[in-house]
Amino acid sequence: MNDLLMSLPDQGEFFKTLIYLFVTYYKVILFGLGITVLLSVVGTVGGFFLAIGLTGFRTLEVDKKRDTLVIKILKVIGQKFAVLYVTVFRGTPMIVQAMIIFYGVAQANLFSWWSPLPAGLIIVTLNTTAYISEVLRGGLESLDVGQMEAARSVGMTKSQAMRHVMWPQAIKNALPGIGNEFVVNLKDTAVLSVISVVDLFYAVRQSASESYRFLEAFMIAAIMYLILTYLSSKLINYLSRRMSQTGEANL
Amino acid sequence: MSTLISVQNLKKSFGPKVILNDVNLDVNEGEVITLIGSSGSGKTTLLRCLNLLNEPDQGHIYFEDSDLMDPNTDINHLRERMGMVFQSFNLFNNKSVLDNCTLSPIKVLGLSPDEAKKRAVKYLEKVGMKDFISANPKTLSGGQKQRVAIARALCMEPKVMLFDEPTSALDPEMVIDVLNVIKTLAQEGMTMVIVTHEMGFAKDVSDRVLFMDQGVILESGTPDEIFNYPQEERTKQFLKRILSH
Question: Which of A5, A157, A182, B4 is the most core-located residue (most Cβ within 10 A)?
């Protein structure tokens, strides 16, 4: 490696240095890029499913007349938990959440498998859950109340109505927002390098600190991130358009 | 003729505003009742209390063997037996016409998809919408949507049908198709409670017309009695205003 660094292009040879660094470090950089994509995909997909549950808690309604006391209490606890969860995870930076969760679990010695990558996957998932939950709640609230009433009027329980009528429509409405969360994750997972997750940012920083060519190295990072977000946005737009033509989001 | 629904001393307020103030009503089997009155008189709220889409504050509603005000009554089972048609149709936007009609028979009544489809075809044919079986609700006109909504309710084979201003959101030329469907149901002996502003239709189809005003049933009688010989001053005023144009 040091040999390679010996033959670095001169200062000021911006493009040459850029290419040189990429060629030298492409394995590390592409690996990091893979990890960034992995974090974003797992975070968004996992966050989506957890968010459905969390939004379910959030939208619980106490039936004053028919619920037993225990059910009422459980419903209120569920609601409060969901509100608290969203407030905490949206109200603190992910970089701080990463530090607390990663070192907290490490210090408590809870899991033998605890290491940066699985920790990073869990942190980004927990964080995304809060954001997608808000997107889903918006999707549900944008539906006409008549949809629920119609479902109830033909004898469906609230959960049947949610499952067959409300959620499919809410998720469809929420797809652009969920896609947006994916794009945000591609960029924001960079902060997970703080707990030594070897993502794109971490890989580039390594190449920068070894070569002392920070401008060129981080320009590579910028280009990589831009390609990722650009392609993802295109893909998401294409998928949303197709979904709106074919109609139904299947659960 | 046995009583199917019995409403006793029903009261309902939204906040400080009293919507229903001591309403009493018996709906007999096979009877067609229309509720008329100006907006805000409580017609829609009364109708929505019958299947507990609005929760009454006080009073009693008995339907077949159930006491609706008893917290232990299974309201889902109750609603299976009461069809409802809304002013704004409320077709499930994520389902085709067929799936709108089969969803609840399959999920709630436990019919097989084949049985449910057979039933859906039967009722869609009845409302003249069989050709649109695989259509997306978004592509239908208001009158078509409303006829599908009627078929969807009929697919549960309910004991009674509740209509909440079923033609108020329709273009004038669509109204007649929907009213004809409802008339057919009336002729076949379906028990129905209908909130409507269509006076001609109310005259035609009703066994009994109820005039509601300020949360009470002010006057009730045969269409002839209400429309030709109204007793109450408020009824006369209402009919004069609504029939004068």
Answer: A182
pLDDT above 70: percentage of residues in chain A: 95
Domain ranges of chain B: 3-81+159-244, 91-157
The DSSP string of A55-93 is HHHHT----TTTS-HHHHHHHHHHHHHHHHHHHHHHHS-
**Average pLDDT, integer, range A184-205:** 95
Q: Which of B32, B59, B29 is nearest to B45 (CA)?
A: B59
- Reduced to 3 states, what is the DSSP secondary structure of residue B51? coil
> Which tokens sit at A58?
């959030």
CA distance B224 to chain A (A): 33
Instruction: Looking at the complex, report in whole angstroms how far the Cα of residue B214 sits from the nearest Cα belonging to chain A.
Output: 25
* Chain A hits for B134, Cβ within 8 Å: none
Stretch 10-69 of chain B: residues touching chain A, C-beta under 8 Å: 51, 53, 55
Compute the average pLDDT of residues B172-191.
93
Put simply, whether B84 touches A (Cβ < 8 Å) is yes
Query: Which of A153, A164, A172 is opposite residue B79, by nearest beta carbon?
Result: A153
B3-81+159-244, CATH topology level: Rossmann fold (3.40.50)
What per-residue confidence (pLDDT) applies to A135?
A: 97
pTM of the model: 0.89
- CA dihedral B60→B63→B69→B71, nearest 10 degrees, is 160
Interface test mutation site (partner B, options A149, A152, A153, max chain B beta carbons within 10 A): A153
Q: Look up residue A9 and give its DSSP letter.
A: P
Question: Which pLDDT does position A250 carry in this prediction?
Answer: 46
